[in-house]
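Progress report, Aim 2. The chain analyzed during this reporting quarter is listed below.
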Amino acid sequence: MNSPRTRFYRDKINGKIFGVCSGIADYTGVDVLWVRIGMVLFTLTTGFGIPLYIILALIADKKPGYLYAEDKSEQKFWQGVRQSPGRTAREVRAQFRDIDRRLADIETYYVSSNPRLSAEIERLR
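Predicted structure tokens for the chain:
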């Protein structure tokens, strides 16, 4: 089953009618104005926009209120996961490597200035 943060939801809070375009914008990270313009153009050129909108409004669940809470950075992160999971995983791994490097630098700094601490760490290894 998909994580609640990687599913498509209607966004009634930011939506105009049923929140479908706003939900698509939230899911993809594209500005809602462009999604709405795209939907109008799709409707005018094919005629399937309104039926598609209604079907999505009936099928999709309403976005839970607890999702993203008020944290825009979390929302951007999950949009990145939906757009490119592999890239997001690489970015997270890179951040962990950076944290590991920083911790090693801190350890080196404190151990080099404290021989007793250095000996204790070596005994633990």
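The first strand starts at residue 9 and ends at 10. The two ends are 42 Å apart (CA to CA). These observations will guide the mutagenesis work planned for the next reporting period.
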